């Protein structure tokens, strides 16, 4: 009897243990349910949405990450920064992307406007030394082609980590005057932490500011046997940032004051017809350019007038954007990109901004706006190199904190920017 009783007791505890395990197992979601719960559908306009979308179409993306600050880079798109965020997957996606074109998988004949927050191009675009027009062709859209090396061909990924990615590309380009350029391109994208952002801008960030900053180091090297000079034509590094506009976004460009007889005009404002006065306001040391994506227009500042900084403020989303770039002193030879045979092919701009808008036929590419910087013309002997650095920073936070940054970096109050086009 004692043996039987012991056996019954043991069976009793086995039964109770089985009930407990079964009850616990039933209370837990199935793995399929867990997976479904973990798969978050992000809203359009967020970084998470763009990252998920881009992963569907590119299998070689490099994501740089430091906490909530993240940047997406694509080797297939010439080491292009596609977009960034300061607030993680649910945060605002700062780069403009042409979702429809990317999803279509099509390739355009003249130019593939994929978009992207920061891309590498080369100048000049127009003139007798252009690399976008074939020799003896007329300067109109039918003959304008972006070289495949900076449009559709990939850059080789040399190395990558959580904070930076490096790329390289060999190119051979022929300009309008039949000069052949053999060059090597090296491009490194680095995600900057808050300490590096503060150091680059020589200012402190408060705890209430969310920030993302990245730097592109761009190097072109003369890999041929002939020198590049004013007789043959010279290339330049051209960095373009495509950003999302809003009705209350304005580009802010500080500039050097001085007499026009010494420094020339303050701003070139007639690229696509003169910019109306309700879209461009020039003050003593700063100009405001409306960036709402509703009227196609462009401005430019010469190296005599430019400072190594520009920015924008989106009052609707409370985003302050800063662009910082290389601007060597006493070098005023910048390529001229006007679509014509030029009297002064090396009297071009160092800083530009473009606002997208409808074309004459009503079609529109964007909407987006751009902040652009260029290197000087690359006067390189065989084997020599030229480096151009461009940094992009986005800040989100309370208006008081952002205002302090704006006054320090752009020398202007946020309230003045907001009311510029009221």
Automatic annotation (TrEMBL):
It comes from the Bacteria. InterPro entries: DUF6786 (IPR046713). PROSITE patterns: PROKAR_LIPOPROTEIN. This is Lipoprotein. It comes from Splendidivirga corallicola.
């Amino acid at each position: 009897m004692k043996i039987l009783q012991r056996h019954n007791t043991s069976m009793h505890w086995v039964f109770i243990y089985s009930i407990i395990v079964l009850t616990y197992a039933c209370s837990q979601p199935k793995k399929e349910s867990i997976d479904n719960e973990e798969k978050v559908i992000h809203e359009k306009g967020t970084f998470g949405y763009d990252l998920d979308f881009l992963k569907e179409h590119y299998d070689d993306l490099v994501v740089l990450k430091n906490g909530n600050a993240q940047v997406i880079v694509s080797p297939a798109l010439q080491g292009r920064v596609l977009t960034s965020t300061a607030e993680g997957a649910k945060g605002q996606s700062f780069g403009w992307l042409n979702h429809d074109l990317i999803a279509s998988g099509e390739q355009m004949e003249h130019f593939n406007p994929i978009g992207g927050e920061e891309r590498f191009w080369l100048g000049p675009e127009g003139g007798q030394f252009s690399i976008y027009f074939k020799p003896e062709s007329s300067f109109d859209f039918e003959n304008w082609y972006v070289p495949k090396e900076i449009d559709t061909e990939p850059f080789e990924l040399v190395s990558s980590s959580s904070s930076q990615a490096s790329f390289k590309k060999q190119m051979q380009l022929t300009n309008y005057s039949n000069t052949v350029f053999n060059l090597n391109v090296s491009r490194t994208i680095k995600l900057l932490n808050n300490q590096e952002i503060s150091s680059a801008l020589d200012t402190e960030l408060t705890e209430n500011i969310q920030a993302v900053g990245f730097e592109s180091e761009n190097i072109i090297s003369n890999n041929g046997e002939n020198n590049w000079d004013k007789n043959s034509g010279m290339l330049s590094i051209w960095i373009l940032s495509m950003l999302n506009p809003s009705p209350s976004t304005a580009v802010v460009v500080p500039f050097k004051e001085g007499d026009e007889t010494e420094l020339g005009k303050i701003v070139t404002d007639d690229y696509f017809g003169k910019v109306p006065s309700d879209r461009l306001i020039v003050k003593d040391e700063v100009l405001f350019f409306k960036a709402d994506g509703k009227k196609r227009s462009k401005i430019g500042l010469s190296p005599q007038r430019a400072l190594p900084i520009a920015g924008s403020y989106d009052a609707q989303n409370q985003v302050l954007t800063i662009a910082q770039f290389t601007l060597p002193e006493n070098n005023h030879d910048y390529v001229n990109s006007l679509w014509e045979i030029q009297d002064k092919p090396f009297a071009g701009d160092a800083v530009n901004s473009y606002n997208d808008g409808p074309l004459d036929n009503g079609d529109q590419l964007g909407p987006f706006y751009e902040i652009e910087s260029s290197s000087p013309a690359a006067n390189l002997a065989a084997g020599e190199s030229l480096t151009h650095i461009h940094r992009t920073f986005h800040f989100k936070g309370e208006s008081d904190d952002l205002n302090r940054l704006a006054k320090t970096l752009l020398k202007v109050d946020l309230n003045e920017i907001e009311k510029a086009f009221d």
